[in-house]
# Entry
Amino acid sequence: MTPQTVLMFKALSDPNRLKIMELLLKGETCGCTLIHQLSISQPTLSYHLRILTQSGLVKAYKEGTWVKHTVDRDRIKDLISVLDDLSHLKAACDAL
# Structure
């Protein structure tokens, strides 16, 4: 497992970040839209978005004065692949 994969799993270990991911999976948006759907402060939202971005799960880009966020679906596929590999490993161990 790569260090980047570990970072992605760590990023998903927080309930607020999971909720942010759930919202971002509906489509790209800016923090100003997300904040109205969460029970956290703007600095807390920025903190969680930074962790998700640093992990590679979320991409951020500037559009005028706004910073838009979107899920990197290729990274999600990578995590699914890791979980699938672990599932096959467990099945092989169970067969022993």
